[in-house]
């Protein structure tokens, strides 16, 4: 699909209709406005939600390209949001219809929760009847009614609770989890110093997603959520577990409570109730922290910015393709794909979850929440339960450069392995440490508190095993290692290939081997995402926000930022999309001096109008000759009289931060499915990489991934995120083509009936 002058003229209205504002909404506003203008549409803001649509007047204003500048990093929604009783009445909706027709608007892009989206669908269903009434009352003409005979609606879900069925994540959820983890990390230091127990209350009146995932991310001792109330006698079980933790040497306990938590009989369980229980039964020094609306504020995470931007563009495409018979749809995320689902199917499924909870069908409610929620809950149960019997000896090691999330992955491996009855061995300093015998058994309590720490506590090196293969085989024989789990980057991938190749000479290497990708570069074939990449993206986004803010109030300025990634341009591209970059130079998309000159001219033209700050990202190995210094000097020279330049090399700050929650609750499930029951294994599929492919976690033999790999540049031959580059360019006001072959098609949500659920 290419932008042409033949695009039909349409008008679009963007509404932010959530009762509460959520971080990330502004990224969706920006994407809808700029994509709408790009395709030749008039785009209107409606301020204060449905109330603004009913009141009309200055509440409905045409949006311009510049009106959405510098809003990516702003929380909440710049166009406001409010409850509206008037829109619930027929008269209110009639006034809203008149205001839309008067402005020639027949397309609505709505962001909100299930209630707001249901209201939008009702408005659409009543549209023709409302127009008839307006014609009969003489407020509009017959011709106007015919011209605006169909109303098209596309929804996006804004909710920090992630409580909408049909999408893996809603806008605002990731940022809310960031706020929670930041608070937990801060609390854990004081709790450890004073040997305290902390009870944290997080939002989630009807959905426990925030509580569950934050409990996974911080390694909480106990979690209480609405979907799975604790069984009778939970008080004694919780206190016993807290006491056991202290006896093993832990100096703190963390309990997370969703605000809507209840027991099996529907009695509320508040954070103060839990505190009083711990004090009464155990005498521990206990404090309560209620996070409240802190979770709704702050700067959006990189994930939320990208999610909202992709959803906004997909919403515009859905409106362009809509016909009078097209049902209202909602743009959702499934894996790393944007999909379109019938709005009311999703709303009805969401309501079924609440109905199941009200009727105390809790197992069914968990399954209706979706596979992701169910997997998270099962993983938490595994990580909080221990077995004593031993079966196999499993070695765990980190290989390659350190990446945030490695420690959480090791913790998951150790605890799931112990839960399954295995003995876990920790290998220090990668394959080099393996060859030197730096191997020791690691117990349940040894990995306590590892989730919040960056880097690699086991130690990691880039050394490959080929030079030490004899010694590694000997150590595997000495310690009777029956399985190997390698967590790391490209060196880990190469290492597994070398170990597999050496099996013919060393029978000790004929054991199941699994690699979990962990690298900030996200350059491992066989997986769309790697542990560490999300944290690096947030580091880049936060730094770019600060750098741009440093130029606030100054003359026009362009910043040249160098990112890591080797030859892989993932960080530069996706970081550029999240930070609102004007250009991102990467190895995968070759460029020459003419491209650089064109970018400078484009930026100069923008600077002459109203844009005060420009941002250009460069991947560290994108070009041997067009270095960061060269690009900086070129922009400085060519921009004289219009803007000045500054440069910044981000370096290893992208590696050293503590990990985000996304790595924890993703990689815990990775480890959960890693353990296999064979002791002798010499087939291709016994040395696998576990990666995320589009919508699923997939085991892939490393030998089969060789054909997909560019070993010279250490990148996959095909990379999904390259499809996001045109999106970044469009939002930066470049004229470019946008491939819609992979855009979401209308699908149907999978409905789980009671008999289906019982069979699962």
UniProtKB/TrEMBL annotation:
Residue segments, region N-terminal catalytic PFK domain 1: 1-385
Chain intervals for the UniProt region annotation (C-terminal regulatory PFK domain 2): 393-760
Stated family: Belongs to the phosphofructokinase type A (PFKA) family. ATP-dependent PFK group I subfamily. Eukaryotic two domain clade 'E' sub-subfamily.
One GO CC term on file: 6-phosphofructokinase complex
Positions with a binding annotation for Mg(2+): 114
Alphabetical list of PANTHER family matching this protein: ATP-DEPENDENT 6-PHOSPHOFRUCTOKINASE, PHOSPHOFRUCTOKINASE
UniProt-listed SUPFAM superfamilies: Phosphofructokinase
UniProt function note: Catalyzes the phosphorylation of D-fructose 6-phosphate to fructose 1,6-bisphosphate by ATP, the first committing step of glycolysis.
Cofactor: Mg(2+)
Domain Phosphofructokinase: 24-318, 393-660
UniProt-annotated location(s): Cytoplasm
Enzyme Commission code: 2.7.1.11
Residues binding ATP, per UniProt: 83-84, 113-116
GO biological process, any: fructose 6-phosphate metabolic process
Entry protein name: ATP-dependent 6-phosphofructokinase
Residues noted as binding substrate in the record, renumbered to the chain: 159-161, 196, 203-205, 259, 287, 293-296
Pfam families linked: PFK
Activity control summary: Allosterically activated by ADP, AMP, or fructose 2,6-bisphosphate, and allosterically inhibited by ATP or citrate.
Organism: Cyprinus carpio
Active site, per annotation: 161 (proton acceptor)
């Amino acid at each position: 699909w290419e932008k042409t002058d033949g695009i039909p003229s349409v008008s679009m209205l963007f509404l932010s209709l959530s009762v509460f504002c959520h971080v990330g909404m502004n990224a969706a506003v920006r994407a809808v406005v700029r994509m709408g203008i790009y395709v030749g549409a008039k785009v209107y803001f409606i301020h204060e939600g449905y109330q603004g649509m009913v009141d009309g007047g200055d509440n409905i204003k045409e949006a311009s390209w510049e009106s959405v500048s510098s809003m990516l990093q702003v929380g909440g929604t710049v166009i406001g949001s409010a409850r509206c009783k008037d829109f619930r009445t027929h008269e209110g909706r009639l006034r809203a219809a008149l205001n839309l027709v008067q402005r020639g608007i027949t397309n609505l892009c709505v962001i909100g929760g299930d209630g707001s989206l249901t209201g939008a669908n009702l408005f659409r269903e009543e549209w023709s009847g409302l127009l008839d009434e307006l014609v009969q009352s003489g407020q509009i003409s017959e011709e106007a009614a015919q011209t605006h005979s169909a109303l098209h609606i596309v929804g996006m879900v804004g909710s920090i609770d992630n409580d909408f069925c049909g999408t893996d994540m809603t806008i605002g959820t990731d940022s809310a989890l960031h706020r929670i983890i930041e608070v937990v990390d801060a609390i854990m230091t004081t709790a450890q110093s004073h040997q305290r127990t902390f009870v944290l209350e997080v939002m989630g009146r009807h959905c426990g997603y925030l509580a569950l995932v934050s409990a996974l991310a911080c390694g909480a001792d106990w979690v209480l959520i609405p979907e799975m109330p604790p069984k009778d006698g939970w008080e004694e079980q919780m206190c016993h577990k807290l006491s056991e933790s202290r006896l093993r040497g832990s100096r703190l306990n963390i309990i997370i409570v969703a605000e809507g938590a209840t027991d099996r009989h529907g009695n509320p369980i508040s954070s103060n109730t839990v505190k009083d229980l711990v004090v009464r039964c155990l005498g521990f020094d206990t404090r309560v922290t209620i996070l409240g609306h802190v979770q709704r504020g702050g700067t959006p995470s990189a994930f939320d910015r990208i999610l909202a931007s992709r959803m906004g563009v997909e919403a515009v495409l859905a409106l362009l393709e809509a016909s009078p018979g097209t049902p209202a749809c909602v743009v959702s995320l499934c894996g790393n794909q944007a999909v379109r689902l019938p709005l009311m199917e999703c709303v009805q499924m969401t309501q079924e979850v609440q109905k199941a909870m009200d009727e105390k069908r809790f197992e069914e409610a968990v399954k209706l929440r979706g596979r992701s929620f169910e997997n998270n809950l099962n993983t938490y149960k595994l990580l909080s339960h221990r077995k004593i019997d031993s079966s196999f000896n499993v070695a765990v090691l980190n290989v390659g450069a350190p990446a945030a999330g490695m420690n959480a992955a090791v913790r998951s491996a150790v605890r799931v392995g112990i839960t399954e009855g295995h003995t876990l061995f920790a290998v220090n300093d990668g394959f080099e440490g393996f060859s030197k015998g730096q191997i020791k058994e690691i117990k349940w309590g040894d990995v306590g508190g590892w989730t919040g720490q960056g880097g690699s506590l086991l130690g990691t090196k880039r050394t490959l095993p080929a030079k030490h293969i004899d010694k590694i085989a000997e150590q595997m024989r000495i310690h009777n290692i029956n399985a190997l789990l390698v967590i790391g980057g490209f060196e880990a991938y190469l290492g597994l290939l070398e170990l597999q190749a050496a099996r013919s000479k060393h029978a000790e290497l004929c054991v199941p081997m699994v690699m979990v990708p962990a690298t900030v570069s996200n350059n491992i074939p066989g997986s769309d995402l790697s542990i560490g990449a999300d944290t690096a993206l947030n580091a880049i986004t936060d730094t770019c926000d600060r750098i741009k803010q440093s130029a606030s109030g100054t003359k026009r300025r362009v910043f040249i930022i160098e990112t890591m990634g080797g030859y892989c341009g993932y960080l530069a591209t996706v970081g550029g999309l999240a930070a609102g970059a004007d250009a991102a130079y990467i190895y995968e998309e070759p460029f020459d001096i003419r491209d650089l000159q064109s970018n400078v001219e484009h930026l100069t033209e923008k600077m002459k109008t109203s844009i005060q700050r420009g941002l250009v990202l460069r991947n560290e190995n994108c070009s041997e000759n067009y270095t960061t210094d060269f690009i900086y000097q070129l922009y400085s020279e060519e921009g004289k009289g219009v803007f000045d330049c500054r440069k910044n090399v981000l370096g290893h700050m992208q590696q050293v931060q503590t990990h985000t929650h996304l790595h924890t609750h993703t990689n815990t499930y990775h480890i959960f499915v890693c353990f296999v029951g064979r002791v002798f294994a010499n087939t291709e599929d016994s040395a696998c990489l576990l990666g995320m492919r589009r919508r699923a976690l997939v085991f892939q033999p490393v030998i089969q991934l060789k054909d997909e790999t560019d070993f010279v540049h250490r990148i996959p031959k095909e990379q999904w995120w390259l499809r996001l580059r045109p999106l970044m360019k469009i939002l930066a006001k470049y004229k470019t083509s946008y491939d819609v072959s992979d855009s979401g098609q209308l699908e149907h949500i999978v409905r789980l009936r009671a008999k289906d659920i019982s069979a699962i």
